[in-house]
Write a structure and sequence with these properties.
The structure is a homodimer of 405-residue chains.
Chain A lengths: L2 E6 L7 H16 L3 E6 L5 H12 L5 H25 L4 E3 L7 E4 L6 E5 L1 H9 L3 E5 L2 E3 L5 E3 L4 H12 L4 E6 L20 E3 H9 L7 H9 L4 E5 L8 E4 L12 E5 L2 E10 L4 H11 L4 E6 L7 E9 L3 H10 L1 H4 L3 E5 L2 E7 L9 H11 L6 E5 L2 E7 L3 H11 L4
Parallel strand pairs in A: 1-2, 1-9, 2-6, 3-6, 9-11, 10-12
Antiparallel strand pairs in A: 4-5, 7-8, 11-12, 13-18, 14-16, 14-17, 15-16, 18-20, 19-20
Helix pairs in contact in A: 1-3, 2-3, 5-7, 6-7, 11-12
């Protein structure tokens, strides 16, 4: 008998009638004699509401109690969905993290699952129960409720799939799969049938919001095959995420991703001497500010240089404050910041064997008079930072040039 | 060091600013070096909202999953209050029912606490923690979340007080204590300083809403002294509930209670033969319909009799259906029902040693032209059923006649 772990996100269980639809998807599988474990998120809006309450209580809300607070959201969905299944004649039960148990390590609010007692889950699957597990939560070694960071239900699903050696892990979302780019800004965007873990990871960290990066990483490490599907069109095929060697590529580029929550920082007139990069980026790192793209201009004539990098928009204020404080120490002349930038990325495993992709990308943007501010690349990704006003045009242009439609 | 169990109901923790006020009450005690365990209800409205969701999912919602669902409400309050205390510099932590554990037996939705591991609570009290425990919840012997019925936070508080051998149990509510009658309908109502468990029990089951009857019973059995106090005026003394032998009575009657959620059922023309009462009341009992007052008219001339009794208003429809179905079996002539009735009770331990109280009650109602439909009594209580429109007048009259102002 085939074992499936299926995960439903917050929108999929956003209200009572959607929970009933989700129950129907599950019943369809259970009737096919599949062993089903369901991972659920909190109903959309619930987690934000709980977080709002915590912020009203304290600007320094205890991490331990935060986890007790927010984990209640997934608990509620688990109970509602289980009861809905039971009402429809299916054997079902909720298993909370402490009942499995799902053991985590690391700090509260940001824990990591290290073990899942698959026996307790299998005990119910063997009796033909559908088991409903709240995502996002675990228990610490001190037997306190822990959570694994926002969007953590994906990670819960992958971890449970791994623990059960499940045949597949299905992630149900409000989209029909992973697309060549965002269909909202490019009508020609097509659903991708198969994508490698690496590509999905690059797409995700470049702005595609379908799955959380760390869960893709975890799936890759454990070779858990993932299917991203639509809760609203469950009969449609969706996107299959799997190892690169199981895919035969007919296109060089798999997708175009973009993000608009980046901000650009330029430090002008920094002394050009060894250790300057470290002096800039270590304090940022110490404050958990993630620096993405970095470029340093070559200074041929003076002993000064300009350093440009990007951070997430909501880290911008903290970054500015920090650099202002370090001004005399770093000895720079001027700080320029810009939130109106956008990062456009092309992603594709085929890039490795096809030279000239970068040129083709830069040239097609130049033909549209789109100025490139910063460039960064990985083996299977090329990203450029451009002015935000050009983002839509750039995405459409690249989608067209690389024949993704 | 003195150990206190203090319980806050839904209105007391109804919103964020009230939770902050509750934290101040606790801090005041913690600063006096008292060992404090706090029992909290769900924020007002939360439980009803969860129940509404369950009803939208299914009219036959699983009892097991119902407990998983609704227990989340108290979990949320526990986390918010604990974090609020921590934020204000107090050592505090939440301990959920499964973490204590608080073990229950009996059916889901209506379980009974049978054991509480006081060691795990004392472990934190010994380290000067304020321990915050969600009321209303426990875990079953199958390690599933259970709940102990609505209003169960009172029962949780009494059970924890008993397990810890606490010096006192304080129930914080939205009123200033137990009153001689409802101050909303009788301005002369006075707060009662001391009341016996028995009297409180009769007051509660006769309509006074301050505390849930089963928790008073439990407190009586275990001699847990209770103080009912106001969350909004925490400095005021409140009402002390204790053993009768510790009270010196200066009044015969302690209070006047009333309820308006009763309904009267009269079965006319029942065969007057042995076993008829059992034939009527056994099927009602089988369907968990609680019958309160019963009166059967003596039939001197015919071999027929009329039986009148009361049930709760919301059991009325079910009662009518059942009796209509049993019509031929019982062989009665006619069924008359009336929801516009009210039960007025006078309660007082002094009644035992003072004859003539019943006469005084009936006479003073007669002088006001208030007709008595049914009478029932216990050792320390006399209740009469009257037309609902006369309820307020009856309460005021009795409050005055028995000099409670």
């Amino acid at each position: 008998m085939i074992t499936k772990v299926i995960k439903f996100g917050g929108t999929s269980v956003g209200n009572i009638s959607r929970i009933k639809e989700v129950a129907n998807i599950i019943i369809d599988k259970a009737n096919k004699k599949q062993r089903i474990v369901v991972i659920v998120s909190a109903m959309s809006g619930v987690t934000n509401d709980l977080i709002k309450k915590s912020q009203e209580i304290s600007t320094n809300f205890s991490d331990e109690e935060y986890d007790v607070l927010v984990s209640s959201g997934e608990q509620v969905t688990s109970a509602l969905l289980s009861a809905c299944l039971i009402d429809k004649g299916i054997k079902a039960r909720s298993l909370l993290a402490w009942q499995v148990p799902i053991v985590t390590v690391g700090q509260h609010k940001n824990s990591r699952i290290i073990s899942i007692n698959s026996k307790s889950i299998n005990r119910y699957l063997d009796q033909n129960y559908v088991v409903v597990i709240p995502g996002f939560q675990g228990i610490s070694e001190k037997l306190r409720i822990s959570t694994i960071g926002r969007g953590g239900s994906d990670a819960s699903a992958v971890a449970v799939a791994k623990a059960l050696k499940a045949d597949r892990c299905e992630i149900y979302t409000d989209v029909q799969g992973v697309f060549t780019t965002n269909p909202d800004i490019c009508r020609e965007a097509k659903k991708i049938d198969k994508i490698s873990y690496d590509e999905m990871l690059e797409m995700s960290s470049s702005g595609a919001k379908v799955m959380q990066s760390t869960s893709i990483q975890k799936a890759m490490l454990n070779e858990v095959e993932i299917f991203v599907k639509s809760t609203f069109y469950p009969k449609k095929v969706g996107t299959h995420i799997l190892s690169e060697n199981k895919i035969s590529y007919d296109k060089v580029i798999t997708g175009v991703a973009y993000s608009i929550d980046d901000a650009k920082v330029t430090i002008i007139g920094v002394k050009d001497k060894p250790g300057v990069a470290s002096a800039i980026f270590k304090p940022l790192n110490d404050q958990n500010i993630i620096v993405d793209m970095i470029v340093q201009n070559v200074s041929a004539e003076s002993n000064e240089t300009d350093v440009t990098f990007t951070v997430k928009s909501n880290d911008m204020n903290q970054t500015e404050k920090l650099l202002n404080r370090l001004k005399s120490e770093l000895g720079y002349k001027k700080l320029i910041t810009d939130k109106n930038v956008s990062k456009i990325s092309i992603v594709g495993a085929g890039m490795i064997t096809h030279p000239g992709i970068a040129y083709k990308m830069f040239n097609s943007l130049a033909l549209k008079n789109i100025n490139i501010l910063v460039i960064s690349t990985s083996e299977i990704r090329i990203s450029v930072l451009i002015e935000e006003k050009n983002a839509e045009l750039a995405v459409k242009t690249l989608h067209n040039v690389f024949e993704l439609a």
